[in-house]
Amino acid sequence: MHRKSLVLLNKIKFITHKELLSIFNYFPRSEYIFKATRNDLLAAGLKERTADYIISLRRTLDVDKEIELIEKKNIFIIDWFSPEYPPLLKEIADPPFLLYVKGKKEALSKMCFAIVGSRLASVYGMQMAERFAYGLANLGIVIVSGLARGIDTSAHRAALKRGLTVAVLGSGFLNVYPCQNRKLLEEICESGAAVSEFPLDEPSLKENFPRRNRIISGLSKGVLVVEASYRSGALITARFALEQNREVFAIPGKADSPLSKGPHVLIKDGAKLVDSLGDILEELNIKWEEKESFVKLSSEEKCIFDIIGREGMFLEEIIVRSRLDYKNAHNTILELQLKGLIEEKKPLYFVRKVYG
After folding, report:
1. Contact (CB, 8 A) for 301 and 332
2. Would you give per-residue pLDDT tens digits along the chain (356 residues)?
3. Residues of 61-73 as b/e, b for ≥16 C-beta within 10 angstroms?
């Protein structure tokens, strides 16, 4: 059984993909890893450092207890040899040998599309992430992102309203980052899934996130970058996507915004410029008929909805422009929020939700 051996080996950060393959090709049964001598491990093609670490780890790690904890947390283990391993992820140059999955593991093998971007996103950026996540999820496409603040969070939340989403973690499940998104992660796992290649107790170390990013792109048919600085992690995801032969898309932004640098560089380098859902669907060869949805609005609701516009507006200005008293304006805004047409992006600042 490979699972027990891989839980042990997954604790070794520096073990290479080649060394893992060597182990499972050399030993007739994977549990031999728990009995092998140092000479056996070296004969299997491992470096001395790796062989010594395995012997040391066997003495200190209670693998059965680790697996018991994994099961207690309702986490699935999917290894490289399992038929449940996501087929698209298996194609990449350095796929993880072990995945820890919480939620509906079958979501990982559906058609997935990644939406990533800045943690310090603008209102415009979050609107765009919501718009495209909502539209794609509505078509049955699973939205993949990294659970970070900003664009990732907006994409996950919008996708949940119409379909499934997958969160890829840069830490173990006992150290979810950011901690503010723990509730969001629970919501994601109710219908979709969360996945990590890291052991349960792995902290959210800086060097983990580039590794996480290769899984985000590896699971996905394409990657959409929405707002990113020149040195953003989103651009690392885009580079992985190119190496993995995935489609890369970018939403243009304001010329003088630092958050536009990343998408604009990608567009100059050949990424597909996106300003409608059709741009993505055409590139992925997905047939789609645009359907308009109609929501009945009262005269007050239509007035305020038209006033707010896509850039957003503070409550005080809404009241002045609509000529409604505070109580009517407040009640009307609440109705528009309940209908899913606007949201409060920051205290007393409302923006339209634009989907599709």
Report:
1. yes
2. 577 888 999 999 888 888 888 888 888 887 788 888 999 999 988 889 999 999 999 999 989 899 999 999 999 999 888 899 999 999 998 899 899 999 999 999 999 999 999 999 999 999 999 989 988 998 889 999 999 999 999 999 999 998 999 999 999 999 999 999 999 999 999 999 999 999 999 999 989 999 999 999 999 999 999 999 888 889 999 999 999 999 999 999 888 889 989 999 999 999 999 988 888 988 888 764 443 344 567 889 889 988 987 778 999 999 999 999 998 999 999 888 876 678 888 888 998 865 44
3. eebeebeeebeee
Task: From 155, 146, 122, select the one nearest 253 (Cα to Cα).
Answer: 122
**Residues in a beta bridge with 226:** 117
Give the Å distances, CA to CA, from 290 to 225, 249, 326. Answer: 23, 20, 38
What are the structure tokens assigned to 150, written together?
């900003």
Task: Pick the closest to residue 62 from 201, 234, 251 (CA basis).
Answer: 201
Is residue 179 exposed (0-12), middle (13-18) or buried (19+ Cβ within 10 Å)? exposed
